[in-house]
Design a protein that fits this description.
The protein has 362 residues and is an alpha/beta fold. It has two domains: 30-258, Type I PLP-dependent aspartate aminotransferase-like (Major domain) (Aspartate Aminotransferase, domain 2, 3-Layer(aba) Sandwich); 261-361, Aspartate Aminotransferase, domain 1 (Alpha-Beta Complex), CATH 3.90.1150.10. The protein is 33% helix and 16% strand. It is globular, with a radius of gyration of 21 Å.
């Protein structure tokens, strides 16, 4: 069977070139006679892989020297707890902006440790998350330890078109769905975190990019493995890290550099998203619920005019090699996740299928 176009929200498809290189190196990495999976994480071979991956990520994102890059485990969900444990200090209060399901989960976890001020809730009026609040709608606290937001909500497909201004308070961003999709100014953030399984690599790895002056203030009783200082002081190797996921992430970083870096990826990603939204907006058969200025480049939800056709749409899509298009159960309909590794040909194939399905079923 040939490879399909996998529109999964995560774990998501990886670049085919990366998979082929990993396949070639599976049992013998560069003449060592062993797989990366078999290497000691403290051996010179893996240490070179880890160092190159970090160097490439720093280059891609133009990460300033006063930021630590951590390769951790536990997913973004562990970060929901680690962030208040490490950043609250003696303030005890944090601001959170709620624009979707993942922001909602981050708030629920933070409330276990902090007094949470919900600076904005974009579902307050309609009960649904269909937009991001404007800067002047944010009710930020002057005494918050940090401000947390989710630049791109994977489930609802809502994206911020700007970086919130916080008047010097550290800004924390869950970039799981949007990291590496375009250039960003890392210096605008105190902490960036991202689960790897969308734009970085396979599940099991979590990236944390953390300004150094925020390290070393974990609250008393924080477990050793939940203290950022533990990982910063040990180059993410206090314990055995997810070595193979780290290696694959490194291959993805090299692949991204070959695509013209993040500026090159931004052009491709914007073009892919525009094609898909144009197909949705140009039809009475399909609809996207998100306000146009807040639409995600990465996750595109859409519904059919007749929900009774959803099953037939999905079955036909699978036969056409277009998989994992079913929307999240909390939203319904369809969702096409078009991360970096989704080629433009995949979006073209989806648009063509949508037009044909409307022609025959509409």
């Amino acid at each position: 069977m040939s490879r399909v176009f996998n529109f999964s929200a995560g774990p998501a498809m990886l670049p085919e070139a990366v998979l082929k290189q990993a396949q070639e190196e599976m049992s013998d990495w560069q003449g060592t006679g062993m797989s990366v999976m078999e290497m000691s994480h403290r051996g010179k071979e893996f240490m070179s892989i880890a160092a190159q991956a970090e160097a490439d990520l720093r280059e891609l994102m133009a990460i300033p020297a006063n930021y630590k890059v951590l390769f951790l485990q536990g997913g973004a969900s562990s970060q929901f707890a680690m962030i208040p444990m490490n950043l609250l200090g003696d303030k005890g209060k944090a601001d959170y902006i709620k624009t979707g399901s993942w922001g909602k989960k981050a708030i629920a976890e933070a409330k276990r440790f902090a007094q949470v001020n919900v600076a904005a809730d974009s579902s307050a009026e309609s009960g649904k998350f269909t937009h991001a609040p404007a800067q002047d709608e944010l009710k930020l606290s002057a005494d918050a330890a940090y401000v947390h937001y989710t630049p791109n909500e994977t489930i609802e497909g809502v994206e911020f078109g700007y970086v919130p201004q916080t008047k010097g308070i550290p800004l924390v961003a869950d970039m799981s769905s949007t990291i590496l999709s375009r250039p960003i100014d890392v210096s605008q953030f105190g902490l960036i975190y991202a689960g790897a399984q969308k734009n970085v690599g396979p599940a099991g790895l979590t990236l944390v990019i953390l300004r150094e002056d925020l390290i070393g203030y974990a609250k008393e009783g924080t477990p050793t493995m939940f203290d950022y200082k533990t990982h910063a002081d040990n180059d993410s190797m206090y314990n055995t890290p997810p070595t193979y996921a780290w290696y694959l992430a490194g291959l993805v970083f090299q692949w991204l550099k070959g695509q013209g870096g993040l500026a090159g990826m931004a052009e491709i990603n914007q073009r892919k998203a525009q094609k898909l939204y144009a197909a949705i907006d140009g039809s009475d058969f399909y609809a996207n619920p998100v306000r146009p200025d807040c639409r995600s480049w990465m996750n595109v939800p859409f519904t059919l005019a007749n929900a009774d056709l959803d099953k037939a749409f999905l079955e036909g899509a699978t036969k056409a090699g277009l998989t994992t298009l079913k929307g999240h159960r909390s939203v319904g309909g369809m969702r096409a996740s078009i991360y970096n590794a989704m080629p433009e040909a995949g979006v073209d194939a989806l648009v063509q299928y949508m037009a044909e399905f409307e022609r025959t079923q509409g």
